[in-house]
Amino acid sequence: MAFSRAIRPSDSWEIPAELVWEILIWLPVKSLMRFKSVCKAWLSIILDPSFAKAHLCGFQGLLFIDPYHSAPKHCFFYVNLDNHPSELRYHLTMDHGDKRMGRTNVVNGLVCFFYHSYSYLCNIATHEIMQLPSSTAELRARARKLGCEILSIGLDASWRPVDAPSKKRIDDDSVCYNGVLYWMESNMGKEKDYLVAFDLAREKFQIIPPPPEEEDRPFSVARFGPSLTLTSWVGDGWDWQGFIFRCCNDGIGRDSGWVWTNEREFEVSLMCGYKSYDPCFRGVLPNGKALITDLRSGKSTPSPFYLFDPPKGEYEIIPVHATTESASLFNNEADVLYYKENIISLRSLISNTYVMLGPLVAFHLTYSKIWIAPILGRSWRSTSPILGLINHKRLI
Predict the structure, then answer these.
(1) Which residue, of 2, 29, 53, 243, is most buried by count of CB atoms within 10 Å of its CB?
(2) Residue 255 sits in which domain range?
(3) Which H helix or E strand runs over 242?
């Protein structure tokens, strides 16, 4: 395209930095990676910590993750929540050959893959991969106890031991709230289940009993918007009717003690227009909406999912159009996770360049099964948010 002499740009012509910022902030990470090479001014904006933090608030959606861990690849598919209907698209493929690799959940766009004593941190959006240090703890054969280690990446050269609660078995996904990690503690039917909390600031464990009303029915720990909750399912036999939330106060895990609110029950029976509806509770998004899928939908495509707003009793159906590469996600076997694109490089995170995000911290739990789950907590050195990794490894 030829410019006329009147509007032809000169060497002094440039777009104001504020306008460039407003344009770039709306672009996905894939585009920003290419635009780093346009000019030094654009590179400076994209690498600016405040820009990275602002960009982290956008491009939120869901990740559908291939459930078959024994396959030679881990496939991540992305669905944008802003587009209705949405299309399932490839976001990342991790090829690990004949190794049976496990993976963590996704926190701030980061995921950790692990194999035996090796762990690899990966930014899903930028496709960066970095190996984490291996634990040097000596594990005894036939040991049946819970051991813990912690690693502040970029600050600690190696893992540090942390005192763990005795005779406790942690078998559920972790949840982080106000800088404290929470798990369900399973007693294999011998005793009632409890919550296990680990304070990242004080590096101490705490055992918390559930409310008396919850002791006789199964429940799970989850986040409901800005609060931590215990979630129970209600129904008649196999007829699932709804779910119950019981929220806690802001003093959770601190010296102020524990206060559980009255239970709030939400019916979901009106969410379907046909009798064959079989809802499956997948979790709660940061905005407080519950993610529910239909287990009885068609077998040739991922089912539509529902975003249910409990306070309003309203829901919206989000159909998902499958791609030809997503056959492994059929029959609702895929893991579904909330996801935010992260443009921050792993090197910058580890070197503490982005101080408002805090250092990267890994938390390592050693027990009798292989499992890793990531958390979002707060730094033990400051009140800044951090990323943590929880690693359950088989004792040798």
Answers:
(1) 243
(2) 48-394
(3) strand 239-247
Contact predicate 106/119, CB 8 Å: no
Is the separation of the CB atoms in 324 and 305 below 8 Å?
no
Residue 9 lies in a domain: no
- Pairwise CA distance, residues 158 & 180, whole Å: 22
Residues 23 and 78 in one domain: no
Q: Are residues 19 and 123 in the same domain?
A: no
CA angle 157, 384, 179 (to 5 degrees): 90
Q: Decide: helix, strand or coil at residue 104.
A: coil
The CA distance from 225 to 234, in Å, is 21
pTM of the model: 0.68
Which spans in 261-352 are helix H?
A: 346-350
Residue 7 counted as domain residue? no
Chain centroid to CA 396: how far?
A: 29
CATH of the domain at 197: 2.120.10
Encode pLDDT of 88-134 as tens digits. 666 777 666 666 666 666 767 777 777 666 777 888 888 888 887 77
Q: How far are the Cα atoms of 101, 119, 238, 370 from residue 393, in angstroms, in the given order?
A: 12, 11, 35, 4
